[in-house]
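Course exercise 7: structure representation. Students receive a sequence record and must write out the corresponding structure in token form. The form below is the worked example handed out in class, using Pyrrolo-quinoline quinone repeat domain-containing protein (416 residues). Read each field label carefully; the graders check that inputs and outputs are placed in the correct fields and that the protein name is recorded exactly as given.

STUDENT ID: A-19
EXERCISE PROTEIN: Pyrrolo-quinoline quinone repeat domain-containing protein
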Amino acid sequence: MRVLALLLLLAVCLVTIGCPPESTPTNRTRIVDPSQQPVHPDVLAKVDLQYYWTLPLTLNPGERIERLYRLDENLYCITNDNYLIAIDALRGVPKWRYQITDPNSTIFDPVHANEMVLTDEPVGIRGVLDPASVEYVVAFDAVMINTLTHLLVFDRTTGRVVRDRYDVAFGFSANTGGATDGESFFVGSAEGELVAVRPAEAITAWEIPTDDIITAPPQYHNNHVYAGGEDHKFYAIQLIGWQKRIWTQTVGGPITAEFYVGNRGCYVPCEDGRIYAFEPLHGRKLWEPFITRGPCRRPIQVATDTIFQYADEDRLYAIDLMTGQKRWDMPTGRKILAVMDSKAYVLDDSQALQIVDEMSGQVAATLMMTGFELFLGNTTIPAIYAATRDGQIYCIRSLEAGHLTAEMLEATPRPR
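STUDENT ANSWER:
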């Protein structure tokens, strides 16, 4: 028995010596997989790219970035805790952050309004009946964002809350993000109505019914609002004078993805696997629908000369904007990260960056984008934005690009 006891004691000592003490997450050495590190600058340089700026964003414990946007001069991150974080897209400097709602609630995509004029507090119907009695604050550049039930408005430069979640409550359930003309916020409802909400008065200005739920976010352009949804129809609503539908086009399936509207056309991806193009003022068909081999459920991407669209379970297509004819396709392509110097930077399904000729699709170089988790779709500015979920933000540009300017970040580079 004494021998057995000695053997047991020896075994306990060996186990104790062989096992390190339990560590907390703060003192444990982190083992990093080299393949998960962001691309080394020397590797970027081989394809004529560089890190223009990097930002280690400070997040709360357990907070992670879920979505990444760029609107004009700002980058926006939305986190799993439903914080909206604004970053200067030009310099990579944090600007402000605000929790939109509780972590379990739905929030939609933000939109911008320039030189917006609001009162300090909602003035209700008095602002409509007697506008001369209302004292407005100095104009500011706004970002607007909605939940299922409320609209919030911020000064996008300072983060000042101009309308919080208690100021503008919807009398309906929103089903989309919105668009704005700087006075009204246009949003699709779960009841199938396009609704105009005025944040100055915190009232619903008007509602226009459709034949089913609106599922794509409305778009505003040149005193018109455009909407589409489950009823297989695309609507144009005129805002000058008494708002009214001025034309409607029937398509072959639901419109659920974000479409694009500019002076040159309305470009509409549809779940019937087609891309439709309409003249914005009268709804005239610009070209025959472009046919893919899968439903179009991702946002359409429009550059100056080319439309890019990924069709689910199919491929990425590059289409001549003027003619609607295919330029090229890429079976593995998923998203355009930038169009710079006649090259399209395509993210593929293996997270490789394919650098291709915009017109021919010929691949000039390939780069594995290791270490990144979020990529911003972009066709309008000469930069690539990427991020990790733990808060590392990157701006990547051409080696020969020079400085990124405020003018480059404005919305106007899209075809008008």
